[in-house]
Amino acid sequence: MGNIKKIAFGTDHAAAEVRDTVKKYLQDLDYNVEDFGFCGQGSCDYPDFAVQVAKTVANKEADRGILICGTGIGMSIVANKVKGVIAAVCWNEDTARLASQHNCANVLCLGSRTATVSEICRMIKTFLDTPFKERHQIRINKIKEIEKRECR
Ligand code: RB5
């Protein structure tokens, strides 16, 4: 598990069928899960959950964020508006590994309509188990500089 202990977790209605399984999967791996997701009936708006998870990670109240909507795209667009967040949409274990190893992503965004629940769980485990590789730091510094310059 390394240094990652606390996970901020958020879902919208599109992830209703996978959310409990994924949350339990994380808890069984001994992660402390703070759930900001939608667990009601009907539909909801993914920005409401993505922003809470992203702010929790940016404020260092969680080590990583996991967001699941239909495709992961909407969640990632919102999460990337929050300073300090690098959110990545991933669609297989390779992209989940590289999001952490190369992009230093701290929020993983997945699609319940583009992956099965077992693929989702495997992507999450790969993401959380993979450390960042220092040789990519110069690019991350450039992202941070752009964020400082362009986002007010
Ligand atoms: C909801 O229908 C859907 O648009 C949402 O879950 C997500 O896929 C948006 O990116």
Walkthrough of the structure:
The protein is of the alpha/beta class and 152 residues long. It has one domain (6-150): 3-Layer(aba) Sandwich (Ribose 5-phosphate Isomerase B, Chain: A). The protein contains six helices and five strands, in the order βαβαβαβαβαα. It has helices at 16-28, 46-58, 73-79, 93-101, 117-129, 137-150; strands spanning 6-11, 32-35, 64-69, 87-89, 107-111. Strands 2-1-3-5-4 form a five-stranded parallel β-sheet, with helices on both faces. Strand 1, helix 1 and strand 2 form a beta-alpha-beta unit. Helix 1 packs across helix 5, helix 2 (46-58) packs across helix 3 (73-79) and helix 4 runs parallel beside helix 5. It is globular and about 45 Å long. The protein binds D-ribose.
Question: What's the rounded overall pLDDT mean?
Answer: 97
The bound ligands are: D-ribose
The Rg value, from CA coordinates, equals 14 Å
- Spans of at least 5 consecutive residues whose pLDDT stays below 50 are none
CATH architecture: 3-Layer(aba) Sandwich
Strand content: 15-25%
Number of strands: 5
Widest sheet: strand ordering: 2-1-3-5-4
Number of helical stretches of at least 4 residues = 6
- How far apart lie the N and C ends? 35 Å
* CATH fold label: Ribose 5-phosphate Isomerase B, Chain: A
Q: Major beta sheet, specifics?
A: 5 strands, parallel
- N-to-C order of helices and strands: EHEHEHEHEHH
Q: Strand pairing plus helix content: what structural class? A: alpha/beta
The percentage helix is 40-55%
How many separate structural domains?
Answer: 1
